[in-house]
Amino acid sequence: MAGISGMLIAPERLQAEIRSRPPVQLIHGTEDDVVAIRSMSLAEPALAGAGVGVETHVSQGVAHSVGQDGLAAATAFAKLKARGRMATKRSGQN
Q1: C-alpha distance from residue 21 to each of 24, 37, 39 (Å)
Q2: Cα 89 from chain centre
Q3: What is the pTM of this model?
Q4: Which residue numbers in the chain have pLDDT < 50?
């Protein structure tokens, strides 16, 4: 799952309310004036603390949007996680 220019609402409730833990990549632009980039640094430890595998990508000079580097990072992340999932299924694990 990719979270782009977003914010985790009520991180203090995450532990109690989380129902699944897909890997997450957070992507945020340094020039976002709608959702501060600080939101990513608050979400990362909250997700990790809830047992979610989390990675981050910072897009330099990007506002409340997604830059080409962010798209490339999200694509690479999705491909990597899909390959890992397929390898797990092939080995008979779920």
Answers
A1: 8, 23, 20
A2: 23
A3: 0.84
A4: none
